[in-house]
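Hey all, sorry for the wall of text incoming. These are the two entities for the joint prediction.
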Amino acid sequence: MAKKLGKKARKFAHKHLQGGAKRSRKLRSQFNRRTRKDGKGREEEVDGDEEMRRGDSTMNTNDDVATLANYLEFPEDENELDGDLSESDGYLSEDPECLYYSDSEDGNVLEDCIAEDDLDEQNNDMNLAIKKQKKKLKKLLDKDPEFANFLEKWQSELVSHGSKEDSDEEDEMDSMHDGVDSGDRNPPNDKILTSKTISEWCQLVSKEPKTPVLRNLLNAFRDACRFGVNSNSLSMQRLQSTEVFYQIISFVLAEADNILRALLDISDDDKGKIMNLRHGNKWQAIEPLIKSYLWNSLDLLSQLTDNQMLTFVVTQLRPSAVFFSAYPSTSGKLLKILIRLWASGDQNLSLSSFLMIRELASLLPDCLDLCLTKAYNAYLASSKLVDNRNIKHIELFMNCLVELYSLDVHKSSERVVTSVGQLSAILRQASKTKEKEDLLKIDNWQYINCLNLWVRFICVNYKDCDLRTLLPTVVQIIRGVAHLLPGIRYLPLRLKLAQMLNELSNCNQMFFPVPSLIFGCLEFREISQKEQTQKTKIHFSSLLKVPRNLLKSRYFQEQCILSAIDVLSAHFAQWSYHVSFPEVATIPLILLKRLHEQTPIESLHRPLKRLIDQVSENRDFVQRKREVVSFSPNDQSAVESFLQDEKISGNASFTQFYASVSKNSQTRGRKLL
Amino acid sequence: MGGKKKNKVIPAPPLPPEVDDDEVLVSDEDVDFVEENRDHIHLITGIDKNSLNEVVNKLAAAREEDKLERLYEERERKRKAAEALKPRNDDDLEVDRVDALPVKTLQGELVYKTAKRVRSEDKDNGVESKSEDNGADPKQRFQKERKGRSNKKEDGKMQHVQPPVKVAKEKLHTVVLEEVKEELSAEELFEKKKAKLAEIGMAMLEDPESNIRSLNDLLIMCNDADQKVVKLGLMSLLAVFRDIIPSYRIRQLTEKELAVEVSKEVKKTRYYEYTLIRSYKAYLQKLISLEKQPYFYHVAVRCMCSLLDAAPHFNFRESLLASVIKNLSSSNNVARKLCCEAIRSLFRTEGKHRGEATIEAVRLIAAHVKLNDCQLHPDSIEVCLSLKFDEDLGKDESKQERVKPKKNKRYQNRDVTKPSDKKKIRKELLSKAREEVHADLRAVSFTLDPKERKMIQRETLSALFETYFRILKHSLSTSNSRYKATSVSPGGSHPLLAPCLEGLGKFSHLIDLDFMSELITCLKKLSGYTDQQDEISQDNGLSVSERLQCCIVAFKVWRSNLEALNVDLQDFFVQLYNLILEYRPDRDNGEVLADALKTLLWEGKQQDMLRAAAFIKRLATFALSFGSAEAIAALITLKHLLQKNSKCRNMLENDAGGGSLSSLVAKYEPEAKDPYLSGALASVLWELSLLQKHHDKTVSAMASNILSMANLHATQNPVQLSSANPLEAYNELSVLQELSKPANKVSSLKCRRKRRAKEFVALSPDVLEKADCSLSDGELKEKLRSHFAVLRGISKNERLRIDLNHTLSSINLYKEYKRLKKQSKKIEDW
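and here's what came out:
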């Protein structure tokens, strides 16, 4: 269905709304790129950005690791699915309707049919033209009555021909609805639905769910959902006003779940109960209604194009997840749509569709595999390119994915292990050959984001699961990446790796020598004399490798050192109550002091001084405290309990300092975004 | 340099007077042509001055460009020939084998003629075949020459005549070619040439004796216009030479020998050898000239390296060596690698050339370094690491001779250049004869007597250390003036320092004791040590790795000389103590640090207690801030120190009031510059408790192991975890090493626990809250309305369009209808 509307809308827009289409394309170019990538894969890389070409080159090399490196994606066996998705991607991406919404918002609301001006005008023009031509035809007919006969004959031929063409599409569409159409319904009526009827029905249904009006209402819902799919279909005739359209859709979406539950006498999400019910008589009676509701909602989802609307519908559908779970194949379809929406890039839509995915996945373990694969691949596809705009989305995607993978660790562990194994294999290959091509497989966002994903996954699940076998591999990968990509230019990458280590350290209480990764940051002495005139547009956190021309720029060094301060503070905060904190701080402190003395960037003096003061203070504090204890370093339990009270109370100045630092860095990040 | 050589050349050729005269004239003319200002040459050859001047004038008048070129070429060739002759003479002086051999004292008229022909043919571009003159009477030959002289004005022409023959031949050739051109494409031509090359090559390899003349043909091929053919020609010549070069050096025949009649076989052999050496020389000249062309650079270098590898004993080794050594510091990676490998193999297979080439090579390297002011590629020094010295020899020598190598050299030079006393000469002659016999014997057996071998090695060593010390001095003199910031980039402007230090470390046992103190002082300065304790300059221009290497070398030198040296190495400990803090994982070489720890601390005997304590504390702190490989190296050293200095074990325990041992400083100063003033003995090794939590199991196990020492008696040692030294441990744990190990398979993770639907782990609650905000009714209505409107608009538009199209086509159909109607009408009418 989506396909159909998509095609039509596209064709239409292409023919008649060139300007609008162009505009919308421009607006959504970023969005397009991403969606197209995830759907159609790598065949269609007209975008030509570097990341993609890089991917291509890795594709072409045919050794084992290279094939592993194919974007680290999990294989998806359903080809049909891919095709389907890619079609709908096209639909989404060249969607001209988004624009109408935005236009209509400030247009007059009074008019019932406030389509876009262009369209209206065109329609009017066409009306005029038709009148003119009709007149002409009439004249001709008047002149030569025999022509009428000829014309009739020709028309009948045309119709029979056309219907043949159409029938294929009709079939396809109808087959989907066979379940609903057959048996439990009279041939579709073509009565025009008026606002009044609908509100009557609504009232009736809310009072007494069991009324047969419910069927009518659901039929109306069906028509509303299929509205516009076929220009001369019944629904076009039945729905004449926006008011009616709105009434039907908002009411059904809001109430259907409750009504159906009331009919089935269930209140909670207990899946077992529904499965039991499935064989009961009650279910048999109500099943068509449920099916109709679910399928038509699916139609609606695939038709809508506005992100907010989609968010709304998905949110409304979420309580009904339990009904979906009764129909695995429908759920599969829904999941595909949802994953596409999830990857679409709109924060709210992503979130709400993710919640729905998660709901479904937890209800339907069979779907979990599909979700894990699809979502992981979507994540990889969208994380190829990181820039100012999508940092937040990628963060969200990653968190969502971690949620999804943490649902059933036993089930997802296989995938996690495979993926980590792939990362490791790529790294080994690179370290073996040290060739540029292999190094590029590490030096990209996809690799780093993937690594970050599993780091987060480990952090989240470390307490509950036995991940001790996975951890060393991940740590090794982090160390290996840092080692294979040395130099000041990779400082942003190093800072990210250091953050990962901090995260890991935080969750498993192991000691990681984080400072060794970022000592490079603390060695800046020179900045270029000529200040960059044009303010660099590049956001620091969207970089892995610093462009050469920025290397000595004030901006880059400032950002580097500020990030280094964040990372170091996190590291210090982690061990600020440990008995050996003074020693942990010794070497970094020396370097920080040196930097503070020598840096030519004034704006850094304050944060550096602050960190130095805080660390020194905490060092003195721990030193004072440990002077009075009597245990020795080999007394592990005593070492563990050292300053535990203070740690729990969290009043130490350094803890507070760290809280303020992390808050600052967050606001800084937000400001830059 | 040309002038000097010429002076030597003139008296050098041992030729009979007539011909000598003739020869001199010709060569002098050439010399004069190039260096007209050098009047003294005319004075020497004053006899023919007039005619000569005449000739010169005429020549100058009739000078044409190509003539000039040819003359230049000829002069070059002559000079080269003279050069080539010179070593042979030297050879004669040194080991006059032939004189001692009874077989070779025979008659020599004819032989002399061949020798003469060498020169004349040299002039003749080597095109003329020698066979035609083979049996020719010397008189005839001479007259020919005479004619040439009397017609001096046509000398240029005469030379012209011969090339024209060639040119004519070529022309003929080209004519023929042109005829066949239609049939032969350039490719086929190339194929033909290739085939010819292969043919000649095969013939040469099959029977070099009789086909020796084909070498010339091959050489001619190397002048081909097609660069590919030239390359192939060079390669095939290389293959041929590699195969046919004899295992002895071919010597210039003396006058005496030439004067004696020889048998036919000897003649043949002499001719063979003579042709071989002449072609070889021409080949080398070709290579050396082609080396300058970028297109042939690789081929030329490859050929020279291969030749050097195959025939280091053969004639013209000097020029080969000079070229190869020059290319040691080539910026071209491939060429440099080839040269390095060639020189290394030269060093390794000393048996082939009895060490003579080795010393020549080392001297050339030394000269090269000197010439370029130490700004060369590190590889040019690194090859010296492959040198092999007899350990005993070095020691004997150092005990026997207390003379500095440099002086040594000077003495020798004096010996050679001052053969003043007549008695001495007589004595020498006597001993010479004896030596000659010895030399012949040796030449046969290819062994060196130990004395000579020692001599050669000593010479090599002195040249080598001269180079090393030059580099050290150079680093020292420039390091002070270098800019601070450059210290960040390792090896910046001292490219040779690292391999030099490595070499010093390797050959430390061979260094003369007299140099020792100077060397140590030098190293101390290089390592960045200054006398002002409070202001140790961190930036003496050398990188941390280089400075650490200086410390290592100093200790190696000290230790390999039986530690008998009365040198205070304390300063190097101080230096290491400070350098540990300067270490940066990616900038500096961790291996060097581990090596320094191993050499200075791990291998050492009992340390001073204060110093040991300071190092223990610093290493523990160091282990907290750096990666696992560095940490394990530090911990192993630390453990070793604790084992050797049992008193320091107090640091493992937290006694009331800190360290129980009295020390100068009561409070620990983590940033102290001087280990003695750090007060580390008063500190407690708290670091180890945190290192127990280290993510790397090896490190955490080692930390626990060390901590367990606290409970043991001073003489007891904990269970040995591994016997690796710091360097081995470092390499074992380094990332690259770990990555090269097979990946440990991670089995599926064990976790049976499932999460409930409402339990969120990664998403923060405030993010989740956002998800639930739904649209307001108004907004929803608005959105739905526009959605509806658009859909309706589209469908309406579509309907209208169909209608319009329909009407239009109906109108269009009218024409069709008319046509049909007409037709039907016609049919009806008909």
